[in-house]
Amino acid sequence: MKRIQLSFLHPPRWIECASEDTILMTLLAQQVPIKHACDNGVCGVCLTKLLAGEIHYGTKIPRGLTTKEQAEHYFLPCIATCKTDIVIAQPKVKIR
Questions:
Q1: pLDDT of 64 over the 90 cut
Q2: Against a cut of 0.85, is the pTM above it?
Q3: Considering only CA atoms, which of 13, 85, 90, 7 is closest in space to residue 53?
């Protein structure tokens, strides 16, 4: 079990993430609002900044990320899993 720190909450909160679950699945299960669409790494809608830790895409390719976004430590929670405990910035808010 890895943990995700929601750094944008006051005080920051840790949530647990099962190793087989994507970060998006964990955030949604914990009712953390996040904008998402394709769930396969293509659209880039769920773009979130990784502040600390390491993620893993497995065999999936984050096609929805530009080179600049990757250099600025953004990632796609829809296809990423936690390789270590991570700290994230506030995700984009889900459209209501």
A1: yes
A2: yes
A3: 85
